[in-house]
Amino acid sequence: SCYKFNTTATDWHTARSNCKRQGDHLVAMETREEFEYIIRLLKDSPAYFSLNWWTAANDIENEAQWVWADVNQPMSSSAAPWASTQPDNLGNREHCGDVVSKYGHKMNDAPCEFQYASICEYNLL
Ligand SMILES: [Ca+2]
Ligand SMILES: [Ca+2]
Fold first, then answer.
1. What is the pTM of this model?
2. Which CATH superfamily is domain 2-122 in?
3. Taking 80 as the threshold, does the pLDDT of residue 72 lie above it?
4. How far is the CA of 92 from the centre of ligand 1 (A)?
């Protein structure tokens, strides 16, 4: 896969539709190798390092059942690990998954309306 890093902050649904409009989808990290590859790119870039990033992870349909949107796969925390104490569904309103810099670039659940950067994924055919 290839990735596009969008530093413009948007809510999760806007990030998702922006990816779709380009024929892409929000990033789904189905393997630990893919997760580590993306995290390395984030950590190695001064422009990316301190941002939070929307991924396709969400539990919008069923609380605590995490899936990757659009690729329609269950999210595996052994592939994309949660930060410690996450997901906490704080205030019963955290249903979208982001990579959080201050949590050591691991996964967190956040309110979908929060404004974060986002990563689109696409395949070269
Ligand atoms: Ca939730
Ligand atoms: Ca959280």
1. 0.96
2. Mannose-Binding Protein A, subunit A (3.10.100.10)
3. yes
4. 6
